[in-house]
Amino acid sequence: MKFKVKDMDIATGGPFIAILNHRDAEELDLHSGDRILVNHNSRRTTCLLDISETSKSVPKGRIGLFEEVLDKLKVKDNQSVELEFNGKPESVKHIRDKLNGKKLTYEELLHIADDITNDRLTSIEKTYFVAASYVNGLSLDEVIDFTKAIVNTGDRLKFKGLVLDKHSIGGVPGNRTTMVVIPIIAAAGFTIPKTSSRAITSPAGTADTMECLAKVELPYKKILEVVRKTNACMVHGGAMNLAPADDKIIEVEHPLSIDAEGQLIASVMAKKYSVSSSHVLIDIPIGKGAKVESKSGAKRLKKKFEKVGRKLGINVKVIITDGSQPIGHGIGPLLEAEDVMAVLRNDPLAPADLRKKALMMAGILLKMAGKKNGEELAQEILDSGQALVKMNQIIKIQGKQKKPTLGNYRYQVKSKKNGKVKSIDNLIISKIARIAGAPKDKGSGLYIVKFVKDKIKKGELIYTVYAESKFKLDLAVGFTKKNDGYTLA
Amino acid sequence: MKFKVKDMDIATGGPFIAILNHRDAEELDLHSGDRILVNHNSRRTTCLLDISETSKSVPKGRIGLFEEVLDKLKVKDNQSVELEFNGKPESVKHIRDKLNGKKLTYEELLHIADDITNDRLTSIEKTYFVAASYVNGLSLDEVIDFTKAIVNTGDRLKFKGLVLDKHSIGGVPGNRTTMVVIPIIAAAGFTIPKTSSRAITSPAGTADTMECLAKVELPYKKILEVVRKTNACMVHGGAMNLAPADDKIIEVEHPLSIDAEGQLIASVMAKKYSVSSSHVLIDIPIGKGAKVESKSGAKRLKKKFEKVGRKLGINVKVIITDGSQPIGHGIGPLLEAEDVMAVLRNDPLAPADLRKKALMMAGILLKMAGKKNGEELAQEILDSGQALVKMNQIIKIQGKQKKPTLGNYRYQVKSKKNGKVKSIDNLIISKIARIAGAPKDKGSGLYIVKFVKDKIKKGELIYTVYAESKFKLDLAVGFTKKNDGYTLA
């Protein structure tokens, strides 16, 4: 059945929506919320149906499509699409089984991953799967099978031989070690193609930060070229079709900040597996407000990561680090990029904690790759400026970006009394930076000067808030007046 | 902040959607999927935000609202609404606790019920609650507390003294005992105000069936009048604000056909509690394709219903009945209404199984109300025509409806061989009736003539399919050719 497209000029950011006139819907016995398959040339996608009650917004014979659908089908206003009607996909049965405590097989998990990848499951159905995996848990075999299923329902970046990678579990603002570690490893001659995410709930993801310096949305071929020429890349994983089911699962985990342990492991390992990693270092920062809050939880997670790695034929090493306060001075894309460049330039004012952590991680990775003196080698590469040269090479080949400017609207948060910093709340610091505009406004965020155990006098600067508009600065400042994230002793 | 309404002329059937122009959204740091509170005069509702990328569909300064929102706020195109920004409601924390296996208190469950009633939770968040209640289970105390919470976040119909009620757990097509039992009980002089639901996945709910005879969407005052004049009513519960959280939970249970046992009990008992029932008979039909498939499951459920009843001060009796095949001849609103009226008229061709089951249930209810000879009394009332008189009185006072006509497009499904009916698949029978147009097309559905254990010859009629359009008849007939729902021995 053919319908002529009407561009509705609406984006949902999430579900794929199509709209039919009520008369067409009635004729076809379709109802709001039904699943339909929309085809255009060789492209197809599943949409949820809304109904137009009159002919004003969508007349009979036409189909209103939201932006996400138009993009996916590469179809324009007034072109034709073909409709089919979808029943409920079979994987709903497997999800029901998981709710009932059943262990799922590889084939069943593949079925689920495939339906998620192709948008055949609604967000309610995906939520049931995440909730079932969370409450009933995924066995180690299920985690391994689901990791493979996620990888096998997407594309892979294929590299041969030793391929290194690293991953930090989230929740600690400013933990931007990737952008120091990658240039060091690449300068040492090892292959390290790094795909990163954008921020979902944090003030900056590595992809957002790197984008202050270089293009990060690169086509497949270009990424291969960057890695061939530099040994490395630092790109946005979401732009490629690597483990696409994972991104779509994260969408429904986000509203409740649910991190089903099995899903977390599958998510991280699928991304690594899909870029052919052979040696992976995983950093689990622990501390209040970090994703992992307790040492025992981190240790349990560490063991599982190592086991799953072994089963997938990936050499995985896990370190548990201090995530009790922000790392580096800057929070927000540009401010974090400046921290990274200061470390790479060996700037005497560069944040020592970021430098130290990145060197430690690069050292471990080099050891994993067979360099016995890993940490000294990492330091030598950084101190000699080779890491900076490598970073500039990566930036140049990915495509240099005009650096954003720092937010012109600024506010200094000062101490109201004498004391010593007892703790800093990661969640509150992230929230203030986000209210100020991060990660969307790249030049907004916080520049922190006082850390835990620092002595502080009344009236002394704690951090500066940067924003790109007065409106957002006022909102952020309003928030700091209720809670600035600092506890003094 | 004020915005001028644009009527988008789109219905979602589910989530409440508002749309802002991307420039307004950017200024306010709002993103697709954010929660906003829209106020108009004294009415308010929570909407999920979509973004218009250009000025074509929603220009700056305007807010596009979907039909559900316009209805709820009673606001029209070009009128003004006021926006507020909602954070995540606190009950999300309680839902996370439930996912983690915590027992919730009455206050926490009230918080959840209140946020559900007022549309402050998204469907994803509600799904997490249902999934957590399903996998981790609700304790008996939680079921009782949640029942009270659901009732206390809605309106109540208050009646004094002995108030009877009945409820059949779903899944068996044609199980329309309510419309026979209620007139009998009311004719015996007892109060029995019955609220029923419309079909969600079945070919007819009692409300859909009753609507073939009388108005079922009545305002609160009118319902009180009907009960005062007739001792009874048979109305659509969804039209009132009785236990509104329950209806909104069912919305997210439906996609996976999940029936968390605790939620099911709370759902049924809340509806009874909200109409002041003192004596309730619950019918659990068991059989393949019914909601409860096993005898052991039915027995467990029976015990829980009785315990919850005791705690709520309601005398609950539970019967376990045969739900292995459809009841009565007709499947679909009008065809089921005809069955009911045939039983009430003592028509010799009336379905004997429906008559027998309804008499048994009416008898038990009369016994519960103190009439020792319950079943004989029920039969006397039915046989003497008093039940029919009462039914006609109820129809008249609720408001008589012009009876729909039976679908003019018909197809006879005949046996392909000689044999004996071994089993009938409830789910397939329901599906065929729905494809033929039920419950929306009231005159569509099935008229069944052969039941389990009946002998049948090749070419003999099994059932007739009725539809209101050729299109739907063809679809239904196409389906019967793949699967007619019958297994012969």
Descriptive overview:
Two copies of one chain form a homodimer. Chain A is globular. Chain A has 18 helices and 18 strands. Chain A has 489 residues and is of the alpha/beta class. Chain A folds into three domains: 2-85, Barwin-like endoglucanases; 164-398, Nucleoside phosphorylase/phosphoribosyltransferase catalytic domain (Pyrimidine Nucleoside Phosphorylase, Chain A, domain 2); 409-488, Alpha-Beta Complex (Aldehyde Oxidoreductase, domain 3). Chains A and B meet through strand 4, helix 3, helix 5 and helix 18 of A and strand 4, helix 3, helix 5 and helix 18 of B.
Strand order of the largest sheet of chain A: 1-5-2-4-3-6
Oligomer: homodimer
Distance between the termini of chain A: 70 Å
Low-confidence stretches of chain A: none
| CATH homologous superfamily classification of the largest domain in chain A | Nucleoside phosphorylase/phosphoribosyltransferase catalytic domain
Q: What portion of residues of chain A is helical?
A: 40-55%
Say how many strands of chain A there are.
18
Describe the structure in brief.
Chain A has helices at residues 22-27, 67-73, 91-99, 106-117, 123-136, 140-152, 178-187, 206-210, 220-230, 244-253, 261-274, 295-312, 333-344, 352-368, 374-383, 386-398, 426-435, 470-482, and strands at residues 2-7, 17-21, 35-40, 43-52, 62-65, 80-85, 164-168, 192-196, 232-236, 279-286, 315-322, 330-331, 409-414, 419-424, 445-448, 455-456, 461-467, 486-488.
